[in-house]
Amino acid sequence: MRSLVFASAAALALCGFAAPAQATTSQVSYGYAWADGSGSLRVVPMTAKLTKRDGYLFYKLKRVPGARELKLDYRGAAYTRVTLACDLKETEGRIAVDRKGLGKTACKPKDLAATLARGPQAVRVEHSGGKALRVSEFFPAGESKAVTARGTLKWVNGNTLLFTANGRTTKLGYTWLTAFSRVTAKCGAGWLTGRPVNADRNGLGKKECTGHDLTKVMKKLKYPVLVKVDYLPDSRYVNQVWEIYGDA
After folding, report:
1. pLDDT band at residue 24 using 50, 70 and 90 as cut-offs
2. Residue 185 to residue 36: CA distance in whole angstroms
């Protein structure tokens, strides 16, 4: 679907412990990392199982009920990629992984920042005290089926949204590739501004806009708004947001 992460999508995992070193203990988590401000990432831990398919190594990820999101400072972390070069957006048919299916091309935190700017990335993170020590890319085995639901949406910051449906709030993320379907005449118009010239018979927006437009519109809103959302539950990536006219 997108580079590395969206070749097939998946999520995180809380793993074991590294051996004590100088009275400190690091933990390991697997999952989808999202940018969360400068030099910071967020990830919701999931279980991970290494699998082999057609000669390639993948991690099968499974959500953990009640798992709490981690926010980690990666500015001093080692970063290893599955690509042959640090600045590549895609593998281009050649990969660099070790015997555990983890990326082995040594890169820098600035390269991780560039990767996360493009969207969520499946990673193994060794961390301690709120700091990421090592971040390693891997290939996820596959994402669960997308979820489509109506509810309310509120912009938090950057590429982060809070979606509430049936009394449950989920933190989601999006990129410029996220489709934003509007009922308004223009993509940059205020929420439900003017006549609903692009609403279908169910009140859903039909005008094709982008994630950039979504940011421009949502960040000006003080209160949650009614929407329809299509997203991937493992990576929590938003595929599409529909503006809804009235209570149709």
Report:
1. low
2. 32
pLDDT of 228 reads 98
SS3 sequence of the chain = CCCHHHHCCCCCEEEEECCCECCECCEEEEEEEEECCCCEEEECCEEEEEEEECCEEEEEEEECCCCCCEEEECCCCEEEECCCCCCCCCCCCCCCECCCCEECEEECHHHHHHHHCCCCEEEEEEEECCEEEEEEEECECCCCCCEEEEEEEEEEECCEEEEEECCEEEEEECCCCCEEEECCCCCCCCCCCCCCCCECCCCEECEEECHHHHHHHHCCCCCCEEEEEEEECCCCEEEEEEEECCCC
pLDDT at 247: 58
| pLDDT for 146 | 96
Mean pLDDT of 137-161: 94
| Nearest-angstrom CA–CA distance, 162 and 153 | 6
Percent residues over pLDDT 70 in the chain: 90
* Residue 207: C-alpha distances to residues 73, 179, 185, 231 (Å): 39, 10, 8, 19
